[in-house]
Amino acid sequence: MTLDPHPWARELVTLHDHAWQRLVRGVHDRHAPARHPTLATVSPDGLPKARTVVLRAADPSTGRLELHTNLHSAKIADLRVTPVAALHVWDHGSRLQIRLEADVAIATGPEVAAAWARVPEHSRSAYSSSQRPGHPIPGALDYDQQADPAVFAVLSLTIRSMELLHLGADHRRAQFTRASHWAGQWLVP
Ligand SMILES: Cc1cc2nc3c(=O)[nH]c(=O)nc-3n(C[C@H](O)[C@H](O)[C@H](O)COP(=O)(O)O)c2cc1C
């Protein structure tokens, strides 16, 4: 008899717990799959926009996540009009797809000073270029590397819904919503 490598996938509660463990691991382990989720927003003209981000905080007790970005980036313009986002992770080791839908709040200035202080020096310009990310430039490297803390933003994602798809010997799919206090519901995969 072969042992089930993923016994946590069999029950709603352990599946949900496992997904959170994998998200939390992404915050602390730069090699974990959840380190680099895909964040999708809706542009003001209604188009879907997706990009890779770094997961900076994950709190299972509140169902919240945090990301860092530049206040001048297009995703901020998207979120100002439509303050919801989807986040996607494919965790190959766990054979688990995590799909989240969240309300997004944007914080900047003194409110995020503590988060800014924790950003390593060498990563700061990635989130705080004073030039607008996506602005056309004459040559590939014709941009300013100066970090400006005034444009550093923290995105706080309050998860509404978490949908999990586990591809084990059997396939299992479940949805967990804040509205149902994360009780969970199996779905046809
Ligand atoms: C591995 C990786 C990690 C990234 N992490 C972030 C991040 O944490 N925050 C961020 O704003 N952009 C991050 N980016 C850049 C984004 O993918 C994107 O190019 C940039 O944010 C501009 O997106 P926008 O124009 O849609 O706002 C990362 C890109 C890669 C490839």
Automatic annotation (TrEMBL):
Its cofactor is FMN. Pfam families: Pyridox_oxase_2. The keyword Oxidoreductase applies. It comes from the Bacteria. Keywords: Flavoprotein, FMN, Oxidoreductase. SUPFAM superfamilies: FMN-binding split barrel. Signal peptide: none annotated. Residues 19-106 form the Pyridoxamine 5'-phosphate oxidase Alr4036 family FMN-binding domain. The keyword Flavoprotein applies. GO terms for biological process: pyridoxine biosynthetic process. GO terms for molecular function: FMN binding; pyridoxamine phosphate oxidase activity. PANTHER family: PYRIDOXINE-5-PHOSPHATE OXIDASE, PYRIDOXINE_PYRIDOXAMINE 5'-PHOSPHATE OXIDASE 2. This is Pyridoxamine 5'-phosphate oxidase. It comes from Malikia spinosa.
